From TrEMBL:
It is found in: Cytoplasm. This is Transcription termination/antitermination protein NusA. It comes from the Bacteria. Belongs to the NusA family. Residues 371-408 are annotated as: Disordered. It comes from Proteiniclasticum aestuarii. One of its GO terms (cellular component) is cytosol. GO terms for molecular function: DNA-binding transcription factor activity; RNA binding. InterPro entries: KH_dom (IPR004087), KH_dom-like_a/b (IPR015946), KH_NusA_2nd (IPR058582), KH_sf_prok-type (IPR009019), NA-bd_OB-fold (IPR012340), NusA_N_sf (IPR036555), TF_NusA (IPR010213), TF_NusA_bacterial (IPR030842). Pfam families: KH_NusA_1st (PF13184), KH_NusA_2nd (PF26594), NusA_N (PF08529). Keywords: Cytoplasm, RNA-binding, Transcription, Transcription antitermination, Transcription regulation, Transcription termination.
Amino acid sequence: MAKATEKKKDEVILALKAIAEEKGISEEMLFETLEDAMIAAYKKNYVNSGAQNVRVNIDRETGEIKVYSLRQVVEEVMDPQDEISLEEAKEINPTYELLDFVENEVTPANFARVAAQSAKQIVTQRIKEAERSILYNQYHEKEFDVITGTVQRKDKGNVYISLGKTETVLTPSEQIPGERYEFNDKILLYIVEVKQNPKGPMISVSRTHPGLVKRLFEKEVPEIYEGIVEIKAISREAGSRTKIAVHSNDPEVEPMGACVGPRGTRVQNIVNELRNEKIDIIKWSKDPKEFIANALSPSKVLDVIIMEEGNSCKVIVDDNQLSLAIGKEGQNVRLAAKLTGWKIDIKSRKQYEAELEAKKEAEEAMALEETELTADVENDDAAIVDADDVSMEEIQDEDAVETDDADL
């Protein structure tokens, strides 16, 4: 019988170790969870035993379970079940001091069997909580990074993707337009956010986020991963086009060439992953004029005029470059504006010259109007002066006439 009991204890230890390994949970946490569960089971099933302040200990090697009542050492005993006087404690062991706890074994017969039934639900729940916590921490560390998932199913536009021990959903707004997702496809996803949830971590993923492009470049370009080449800005319209501004911290390393790679292999790998999305790699500059001109690639810019109001500028291009600078449906200039953070107004050389001519004519007309207005004012002033002079003479003449009439 003793051998059977010992074997059962060994099986408990082995089972705990197996669970810990399978679930990725620490063995000590499992032992502590089981001990807490058994304390609750003791208080529930042995309510009349007298001792309610107890400690349960499971031997980590043999699996033997023991229950100890705890009484605190105090000066004046108010509750004999939970307290013991200092004098009585020292009789048990002279080393006891005030506020220490005196332990006394009170393990009931067949306690392991009774406690196991009551503790099962608590242990199972705690294991699930631990699993959820481990999963959350695992994916929270990968927030703003990329992971590989496996397509499981599609429903109402949503794509359900397995990440191994958990699942996530790629919503329609986070899918690359026109991209197809088939069962068992392996796809790369960008983790936008990870939230804790009672049912497990909620992992928000995306295929359209600019961060996906950034991480792909970091994986493909060693110079970016090592910090030699730096990604300064990204603007993206997923499935169509991306602009990425790069800068080299080493004068001997050409940033655009490093990103393109030998024979274009590096950037082509990224383009393939993004289903042939076009990528413009441009050189970043701290000079806004140069940066804006570079951002409008592949068009050639003649001049960039920084406006006084806000972050706005006027860009001048050759007449035959206007449509290229603007792009299809305004995409090129729109992405350039997002990339640089500047409001961009593009004009062809002819439009700009016409605008300057119109402005010049307007200024000349205004100047002429001001000149004429000044002349009119001067004439009015002269007329007033003349009128005043004539009036005085007329008054003098009238006075003279009146004097002659009086003499008569």
